[in-house]
User: Fold these one by one.
Assistant:
Number 1:
Amino acid sequence: MNILIVDDHPLVCIGIRNILISEKDIDNVSSANDVKSALRLMAENSYDLALVDVRLKGESGIDFIRTAKNKFPGCKYVILSSSSAFDDFDKAMQLNVDGYILKDAFTEDIVYAVKSVLRGRKYFDPVFLERMKPSQPIPQSGKNDEEQLSPREAEILDCLGKGMSNKSIADKLCISENTVKKHVSSILAKLKLSDRIQAALYANKTQNDKGE
């Protein structure tokens, strides 16, 4: 799998490239800091996925995707941005992008999102699932809601089903309580649950349905 990162911050490109290139099923990760360079690279190479920032030194990542989708329809396009503005998200949705990831996402969630999109699914940061207009169908990344969870989120959901506190989960998984809280919020958004009690009930019901 070949991936192109389009971002005007070189350090961001290096960081995301280092995250992705360590994955055994990702063959090549290139980067471009502006629209002209990105389009040139896409003309010279065959990319499976383009990760695009919304704002590129006075240029628009949304406009780039609009142009690139016409020229290179075989590539999948995902926004990777620090912008959580709903206006940016709405414009991206109008282009039928394959995903929208925020740069402050956990490393494992970025990898999970990229791999999900490469497998033909959609991935959207939970903050947008919570804020989507009622008239818009919520994008699903699989046949059921649980498939949207990253491996770490699935672990934490299991812990919630056992009635564990955030501190207990943090101690068990060797992560901070703040990290646990962020994962719990993500789980609630993805599964469309209102609180951790519902999450615990959901976890137990899922395990019972599986015969565990």
Number 2:
Amino acid sequence: MEKIIEESKQGESLVLENKPENTKKLFIESYGCAMNFSDSEIVASILSSNGYNTTQILEEADLVLVNTCSIRDKAEQTIRKRLEKYNAVKRTNPKMKVGVLGCMAERLKEKFLDEEKIVDLVVGPDAYKDLPNLLAEVSAGRDAINVILSKDETYGDISPVRLNSNGVSAFVSITRGCDNMCTFCVVPFTRGRERSREPQSIKKEIQDLWDKGFKEITLLGQNVDSYLWYGGGLKKDFDNASEIQKATAVDFDQLLKMAAVGFPKMRIRFSTSNPQDMHESVLHVIAKHSNICNHIHLPVQSGSNRILKEMNRLHTREEYMTLIDKIRTIIPDCSVTQDLISGFPTETEEDHQDTLSLMEHVKYSFGYMYAYSERPGTLAERKMEDDVPETTKSRRLQEIVDLQRSHSALRTQEFVGQIVEVLVEKASKKSEKDWSGRNSQSIVVVFPKEDYKIGEFVNVKITSCTSGTLIGEAVSLSEMN
């Protein structure tokens, strides 16, 4: 994976405030998307109620869990190397138990127990409530597995702990699964069908975060724009819902408005969107409420209509560009970011040029770029030959990355001379004398610490920039007027 601007949080070990009455130690490590990190918070909450405190020291853990990603082969290989590391530690601590969570667990199921002798339990994304029972099975000397996918939102009643938190920003999951069936993607197979979480439980979680001093949330899902709550069940069954259920249903723009109005001082983000599901009504909600950030992550994957059809993407190049134009009209200062794949099966040079020309039209603020990686079980793996040479994939990917870097530089340059509101999140990686935070457009801003603190909103005048970072100085209200 190649990502411009932001650093990935791959392989982060997570820690929460421990309970003095707990006697066992949990080491949990997460890879992949934000949903995995959110799920790890749910796992830690469940196990915290079952006697486990978390630790950042692998060697002292009674239980080691790795929350896995299957979106790319490289991610799976990284996880296999981590399992080798666990195996080496387990030889010196035979009481240690090791479990695999997440998408890779769902994809490989029983094979994990056979192939990876280090693994004691395998738990899919919808089965984390069963962890205490599975651990009892392991303690009795039996292998344990639960990878059954649910038709309902599984964790709406669980209050997640905030792992390794800065106390400022947090994820709030609103949907699970995906119905889109893109031919390259394993998510529908590893996370199941789309289902949405009850709105009041979402509101309750946001309230809890606000009460604890958090200043920013990200509404999270594989496809947030398809959020639809009508009383439970899968989204695909909505047509069979009662008239009352349909009349009282809540969709994404209503949920977003509910969060913005209910918590006017809380900064709100959301991710991820799919072009065919993003309706104009959502854009008007964003434009109306100043606490909703002006940033939309809008994966396109390719600029070629032929390749989009092969990918089973449910939008065309023209529809995507029309949506971009609407965003620019309704939310003029909105940043748009992307996912792109180079070298999808049968991709020609003309297809690749279509992608570059679409990028020129949009000029994304930043993006996530990949060379195509064949994933077992997907339609592309079963029906399409991976026929683009690796050298060609790499060359095309580099051209995409280079163009994105130039567009990122152009987008950050637009902020020079402006005053932006920044939520202070942490110290700058490059200097302990500076704070780092993000503006509404999700671009990193660095400025001198002075007397400001983490969690404060600060007005910063941008004086210079790189292709990925805005650099400036805090200004007072009097200086702004």
Number 3:
Amino acid sequence: MKLFDCQPKKFRGIFVNWRNLLMWGQNMDAELIAVGTEMLLGEIVNTNAAYLARGLSQVGVTSHYQQIVGDNPERLDAAITVAEQRSQMIILMGGLGPTKDDLTKQVLAKHLGLQLVEDAAHRQKLDDLAKQRQKVMTPNNLAQALYPEGAVTLTNHVGLAVGAIVSGEAHQYVLLPGPPREFTVMVDRELLPRLMQGEKQHLVSRTLRFFGLGESALVTAIGDIIDGQDNPTVAPYIKDYEVTLRLTASAVSEAAANTMLDQLQARILAVLAPYYYATGANVTLAQTVVQELIARKISITAAESLTAGLFQATLGSVAGVSAVFPGGFVTYAPTVKHQLVGVNAATIADYGVVSRETACAMAEGARSALGTEMAVSFTGVAGPDSLEGHPAGTVWIGLATATGVRAEEFHLGGHRNEVRIRCVKTALMMLLHELRSN
């Protein structure tokens, strides 16, 4: 049933059987158009384009151009026209919601001379939501179930606005939602698998997470793997002082794709094992360490100076940590280091606050005070000023266990809070190595 008449300015005669899209994915070039005035105003960052560009490259689709256009139908129509002159695939991101400025699908339908029709599954989702909330579904919300007539619909697994692919002889048009939570799922579960060559191809991705090695050094270390990639592919990117590698394989079955990924992962870890901590798109270093502690039933505490409780707060962000973390200490002043964890005043007088000796005394003192199996300590210079002749970024991290105590010196870059965050992550990696070595 047709629900929305776009009053097309003309019929362009490009719409063809949608099954052809299954052969479009390989060797195509795409243009990404992000729709939303808020991006032009700098209120939000267009992270969707970067995410999608990486995904497209893994299935043989290159993106030579990207545009950002505001919530204006005339300018959006003009952007589509420009894209048609230089790209085969035109991907529109955002503007599929229920508000007046969400006009992307209406503009595209009018541009192509098509009408909007209703997707029954998404309409049912809207009706079910209205019933659950005991509210009447308004016409503007119903617009989220509309898509250009004849297009292939893309299921929105976590939201309400339906996506779509309109395939023609000269161009292919894709409609994707703007909210990243909806966007990434639709890209991974709907769009990319459809762009693989052949209906029986399976696209499987895996994310490897690393800490302690910069992106440039990591890419250099596995340069031969990256240079020779074809299928599977390797896509490195950096976030939150960590580097991740997204591995993607295409095969006739999911099992075959996973076998390919297993082999590639083994090659990568043969080089990068000391920096690897987990596999998974949403796994954190803190979660990985806490899970190891819980699995081994090893308790931990901490004595923190320059990090001022950030390490303990990071542990506390992981559910279930109370099973292994009874509490800890924040010991900024030298006198407090003595009062709470028993650091001898002579140690600080002889070696200074920023020293191996003080870090070891703090860690062993904290472990002894609470009777835990392990303890971590932090002392150093977060900045911006130097301390005891040590430049900002100089830190000592101590680690005490039942078999002894040691400390390591690090020189971390960045401003004050960056040093503190990196210090905490460095300690977590030290802990992980200690746990996995026993």
